[in-house]
Amino acid sequence: MSQLLRRALLLALGLYLFLPILASLAYSVATSWTALLPEGYTLKHWANLLENQRFWLALGRTALLSFSVVALSIFFLVPTLFVVRMYYPRVAGVLEFLTLWPFVFPGVILAVGLISLYSSPPLQLAQTPFLLIAAVTVISLPYAYRAVDNAFAAADIKTLAEAARSLGADDAKTLAWVILPTVLPGVLSGGVLAFSAAFGEFALTQLLIGTLWETLPVYQVQLARTDGNGSAAITVLSFLAAWGLGFWALSLRKDAKVSVI
Amino acid sequence: MSLGLRWVSLGIALAFGGFLLLFEVLPGLLLARVFWNEGQFSLASWQEATRPLYLRALRNSFELAFYSALQGAILGTLTAWALWSSAHPFVKRFTTGLSAVAANFAGPPLAFAFIVLLGGNGFFNLILKGLGLPTVDIYSKEGLYWVYLYFQWPLMTVLMLPAFGAIQREWLEAARSLGSSTWGFWWRVGLPVLLPSVLGSYVLLFANAFGAYATVYALTQGQRNLLPLQIGFQVGGDIGYNPVLASTLALMMALVLAASLVVYRLSRRWAARMEQV
């Protein structure tokens, strides 16, 4: 009886997670679909989408946004966590607090705050991609922070750096040959998670810049009004990106523990 | 360690602090400006934000988050139990990974995937129709629960796994051999160990649904009286541009989320104590 319930639960979860995506995949290659199964199959919708310049521009902007967010996150997080763990462990609590901040001020709220702060001089950044990149970096911070911090925690940086120094390594050597290689998998995992969060970001994008700088999710919402099949193709692409990146990030970690906050 | 690496890192860390101040902390804190009007404390915007229309939005959002988290919590806890008690390591690893990834999949792609499945001519609705059963209206209030369950269920599963991990399977066998029933074991041992984690995870799911904007926007084009959508409408809409009202509503929302965070932190502390015992 409990064996049956167990199997039923796992099967139900699997179906629930896969069915919407499989249906979108089928819809993106269906000629028309009014009965139980599509009447016929075609690659027409995919061809239309891939020939559309607007799609490529949107994808390009999404890629630019995601890479910028990853670069900015790693640029800030790695030296900050290094210096905090090495010299100022008491500041760790403040950092932790700042990574909890987006929990209370999620995308919609952050967008409102940013708009009212940066719509007028001295920093008139509203409706520029720069503000969007900064905002998405803030929102994806918890993901990146957690992964990079775990890497530093597991490595015991302090002992490693002291050992390297006592063996005669200078700063550059310590960094390049001891610290970076040790934390690299964690940093990479954090980067992949930040990339994935930025890739699917919609609330901030729509409210801060909208169609002025159309990313893939914003384009999908526009496209869905006229072309459901094309929109289904974007669903499939987004799904592949999110799941591919997600599993990649998981595989970079030794432990299977997943933390959300 | 010579000084170079330390000071360069410290410089970047301070720049990071400035960055967070400008783009994270200040935008949040300065929302409270709505209480000042020409240098004087004023409740005018708060009165505007507590009009019946917006109170209903708050209530709708609360209800959506409450029930969607409840559904996710029940199914996710049961699924975590299934993973805990099932022996197959591959099934366990695969389902855990799958859940961790799916818990973060939301927004327009998810909304449109469910429209394909449960829209007017959706595949699943066609099956229901063929069987003579009532169909699901994805655009209705109940429809939203189906979509949110997509990330709530796996999220709860992932969050509850460590809590189940604190219960050794040998305990169950030991309790049984001492004459306790399986139910008795879960009631007297399992429940006290799991309860703090269930509460903490439930609060996370609640906040997750309460602050969600992208999925419901894509699903309804913003045509729903929910707090996040009302806020977005006041800053992004063509007609209703009112940043002060948006800030006040945002503040209202942040208060609910801050309360959730406090409950979450308390439950984590409680859970840590339970797992020590």
The total of helices of chain A stands at 11
Total beta strand runs of chain B: 2
Largest interface: A-B, 95 and 95 residues
The CATH homology group name of chain A: MetI-like
Give me the Rg of chain A, rounded.
22 Å
Q: In percent, how much strand structure appears in the residues of chain A?
A: under 5%
Which quaternary structure do these chains form? heterodimer
Structural class of chain A: mainly alpha
Describe the structure.
The complex is a heterodimer of chains A (261) and B (277). In chain A, 76% of the residues lie in helices and 0% in strands. With 261 residues, chain A is mainly α. Chain A has a single domain (42-251), classed as MetI-like fold. In chain A, α3 (53-86) packs across α8 (171-199). The longest helix of chain A has 34 residues, at 53-86. Chain A is globular. With 277 residues, chain B is mainly alpha-helical. Chain B contains twelve helices and two strands. In chain B, strands 1-2 form a two-stranded antiparallel sheet. In chain B, β1 and β2 (40-41) form a beta hairpin. The radius of gyration of chain B is 23 Å and the shape is globular. The chains are: A mainly alpha (261), B mainly alpha (277). Chains A and B meet through α1, α3, α4, α5 and α6 of A and α1, α3, α4, α5 and α6 of B. Chain B: InterPro entries: MetI-like, MetI-like_sf. Chain B: One of its GO terms (cellular component) is plasma membrane. Chain B: It is found in: Cell membrane.
